[in-house]
Write a structure and sequence with these properties.
The protein has 473 residues and is of the alpha/beta class. It has 3 domains: 3-88, MurE/MurF, N-terminal domain (Udp-n-acetylmuramoylalanyl-d-glutamate--2,6- Diaminopimelate Ligase, Chain: A, domain 1), CATH 3.40.1390; 106-317, UDP-N-acetylmuramoyl-L-alanine:D-glutamate ligase (3-Layer(aba) Sandwich); 326-472, Mur ligase, C-terminal domain (Protein-Tyrosine Phosphatase, Chain A), CATH 3.90.190.20. It is built from 16 helices and 22 strands. The strands form 4 sheets. Strands 9-10-8-11-12-13-14-15-16 form a 9-stranded mixed beta sheet, with helices on both faces. It has a 6-stranded mixed beta sheet with strand order 17-18-22-19-20-21, with helices on both faces. α8 links the parallel β12 and β13 (243-247). The chain is globular, with a radius of gyration of 25 Å.
């Protein structure tokens, strides 16, 4: 599959400064560090960088053409060098990705929501890969740059694209909907993640609901019927989209009942499809919240016509993405690394999941700051601290200025707490108290970098015999 330079010019309202409009482009790049011969380079402009300055280097590395917002000094504009000037390269990047998506015309499954997006996306990819040729979002490439680059990965063999949509500002979700043009929209939940960027829950819902401005009427909406804010979100829909629901309530199309925690990293539930019992489903993941992520993924695959028996078999082999409900068993200790992101809802769910799990030894929670919560950030941290009045946790270790408020609140309810100043201090304090059979939940926002604590604890446990040490003492 390819785009002609003439198509690029038309789609982006660009001007051809040099080159041949009949030249065909088959791949795109925004980074000269990874450019390949034949790529078409798009020089994005940010607050602290100007990609147009790298256009001469892109040509030297074999780029077939460049797109810039201004012609840089020293660039080679000979007839075989295709140079296109546009007003906004980022806008043009999205426009070209939308055109690429239209020309390829795969089935597109988009996943959005306040939390659980990546796990749900990865589950869909895991389950669908046995039947479809897939292109999918990698890592956290879920914004106005990452989404186009994901779509550009599609080739003529792609049957289905599974993309994740994330937002931090008003207008982003509308734009991501325009670019991806999904056939299936999976909504995990509407919570309080990034609420500080939108002023209020209502502002957050309105910003997420902007995606309805760019959806086709036939796009199937797959939504969490148990989320209390789903109905407020759906009120913004502009069309009568076909809808498919999941949850634990009786009116859900895909429904889980008798949800049981078999261990800290295994849940089991009975699955119903349109009130007909399918059978027992088991998922190898920490956290009751992951039952909902599994239901979302199952709903998407069921709507796409996949065999339920294959889904039930394959989901038992799912492995979560790094730092998302990731469980490590080392030297008799369970470490739950859930430190990619954190907000009041996801922390609450993780804490209660820890309580209902089966742990023979002690339980410890390492909690870092929850960020991007706005003016109420202190209140939210105190609310999380108050949860420990109802939790059977042996030790709470906090890290960060805001999490110290959670620590103080938890202490007022009788919880044993310790506030650490560094990652090394967390690991040292924890390792002095850890024993075989113990479980440790490590949770915090990405900028707290608590994966460093996970690494230090794993390294120590992997090189020390805790049983022998306990006997010595």
């Amino acid at each position: 599959m390819h785009l002609k330079i003439s198509e690029i010019l038309k789609m982006t309202d660009g001007r051809l400064i040099s080159g041949n409009p009949e030249i065909c482009v088959e791949s795109f790049s925004t980074d000269t560090r990874h450019i390949k011969p034949g790529d078409f380079f798009i020089g994005l402009k940010g607050e602290n960088f100007d990609g147009s300055l790298f256009a001469p280097e892109a040509f030297k590395m074999g780029a077939i053409g460049v797109m810039v917002n201004k012609v840089p000094e020293g660039i080679d504009l000979s007839p075989d060098k295709n140079c296109v000037v546009v007003e906004d390269p980022l806008r043009a990047l999205g426009d070209l990705a939308a055109l690429w998506r239209q020309k390829k015309n795969p089935g597109v499954v988009a996943v959005m929501g306040s939390s659980g997006k990546t796990t749900t996306r990865e589950m869909i990819v895991h389950l669908a890969s046995s039947r479809f040729a897939l292109t999918a979002t990698k890592g956290n490439n879920n914004n106005a740059i990452g989404l186009p680059l994901t779509l550009f990965d599609m080739d003529d063999n792609t049957d289905v694209a599974v993309v994740e949509l994330g937002m931090n500002a008003v207008g982003e979700m509308r734009r991501l909907g325009e670019i991806s043009d999904p056939d299936f929209l999976v909504v995990t939940n509407i919570g309080r993640a990034h609420i500080g960027m939108f002023g209020s829950r209502e502002g957050l819902i309105r910003a997420k609901a902007e995606i309805f401005d760019s959806l086709r009427p036939e796009c199937l909406l797959i939504t969490n019927v148990d989320c209390p804010y789903t109905s407020a979100f759906l009120k913004h829909a502009r069309h009568k989209h076909p809808r498919f629901t999941y949850g634990a309530q009786r009116d859900a199309h895909i429904r889980a009942t008798d949800i049981q925690s078999l261990s800290l990293e295994t849940y089991q539930f009975s699955l119903f499809i349109d009130d007909q019992e399918w059978g027992v489903m088991r998922i190898p993941l920490f956290g009751r919240f992951n039952v909902y992520n599994a239901l979302a993924a199952i709903s998407a695959l069921y709507a796409m016509g996949m065999d339920m028996d294959a889904i039930g078999e394959d989901i038992q082999r799912f492995i979560p993405a790094r730092m998302r409900s990731e469980t490590h068993h080392i030297n008799g200790v369970r470490i739950i690394s859930d430190c990619y992101n954190a907000n009041p809802d996801s922390v609450t769910q993780a804490l209660y999941s820890l309580r209902e799990g089966i742990t023979p030894g002690k339980t410890t929670v390492v909690l870092g700051d929850m960020l991007e919560l706005g003016a109420d950030e202190e209140k939210y941290h105190k609310e999380v601290g108050a949860l420990f009045a109802d939790l059977d946790v042996d030790l709470l270790i906090t890290y960060g200025k805001l999490s110290s408020l959670a620590s103080e609140e938890a202490a007022s309810w009788g919880q044993t707490v310790y506030h650490a100043q560094t990652h090394e201090e967390i690991a040292s304090f924890l390792l002095d108290r850890i024993s075989p059979g113990d479980a440790v939940l490590i949770k915090g926002s990405r900028r707290m970098q608590l994966e460093n604590v996970v690494r230090m604890v794993k390294d120590f446990l992997g090189s020390h015999d805790l049983v022998a040490q306990e006997k010595e003492t």
